[in-house]
Write a structure and sequence with these properties.
3 domains; single chain; DNA_brk_join_enz; Integrase_recombinase_N; 10 helices; mainly alpha; DNA polymerase, domain 1; Core-binding (CB) domain-containing protein; three-stranded antiparallel β-sheet; disordered C terminus
């Protein structure tokens, strides 16, 4: 009796362990005259081995039906069991936005922009697909389509797609993030424009006329606008705040003047 137990234990211990997401040998059982059942042992994401079976009219058809069922079985452990690779993309959007609210680490304005961008830029293209159907090729095509009309729109769409799919990967709903492999977005080159001498003189004339008159609403002119415009024209300062931060000592210094932020303390 003890010898039989030892032999059985040796047989069980020598059987190779089925990896998670894998299955063992397929067996067939005749169920009536025109029904064949195919069955096998499948190891689920929780490490437990379970019996999976499928029935069809013939042995080959039953085997195909069983393998189809095995490929559709989720081999990953989702945190939320309602979200799987076969879930529609809008379900991931709701799941991601709810997770942002749960963490509460971003500003309300950023949260609003994320929801707006994914609803306007991504959902119209992906709302009919499940998560497993959205791969690198679909994401790459969408971003290129958006980039043809607006680089900014493509960049915002890539941001929300990357973050939503990253959450699905972290929660083991998907195996990879398709945005990690899309082609790089290229910002279109823009030719800088400059004012002509005629345009500059016209601006000066308008400012001079405005500063010499009393307005009917708002504060009266104090003579600063013309000076600010002249400083910006002479130094190529990109913002009026940089021009307003200059001091008279900066204009007479022999060294190259350094623009400071508006309101910053003098050195």
């Amino acid at each position: 009796m003890n010898l039989i137990i030892v032999i059985v234990m040796v047989i069980v211990m020598s059987r190779p362990r089925i990896p998670i997401g894998g299955y063992g040998e397929i067996a067939f059982i005749q169920r009536g005259k025109s029904k064949v059942e195919a069955r096998t042992r499948f190891r689920d994401w929780d490490g437990q081995t379970r019996l999976v079976q499928a029935t069809d009219s013939s042995k080959p058809a039953a085997e195909v039906a069983l393998k189809k069922k095995l490929t559709q079985r989720n081999a990953f452990q989702p945190v939320d069991t309602t979200l799987t690779p076969d879930s529609p993309f809008p379900a991931l959007v709701d799941y991601w936005l709810a997770d942002l609210d749960l963490e509460g680490r971003i500003a309300p304005a950023t949260r609003f922009n994320y929801e707006r961008d994914i609803n306007r830029l991504v959902l119209p293209a992906f709302k009919g697909f499940t998560l497993r159907e959205i791969g690198v090729a679909r994401c790459d095509a969408l971003l290129k389509q958006l980039g043809n009309s607006s680089y900014s729109s493509a960049k915002r769409a890539r941001t929300v797609l990357r973050q939503s799919f990253a959450l699905a990967v972290r929660h083991e709903v998907l195996a990879r993030n398709p945005i990690d492999h899309v082609s790089r977005l290229h910002k279109p080159k823009r030719t800088p424009t400059a004012l002509t001498a005629t345009e500059v003189n016209a601006i000066r004339a308008v400012i001079r006329a405005w500063e010499q008159s009393l307005g009917t609403s708002g504060p009266n002119p104090d003579g600063q606008l013309g000076q600010i415009v002249e400083v910006m024209l002479g130094t190529s300062a990109p913002r009026h705040g940089s021009a307003r931060s200059w001091r008279s000592a900066d204009a007479t210094s022999t060294s190259r003047p350094r623009l400071r932020r508006c309101g910053s303390a003098a050195p």
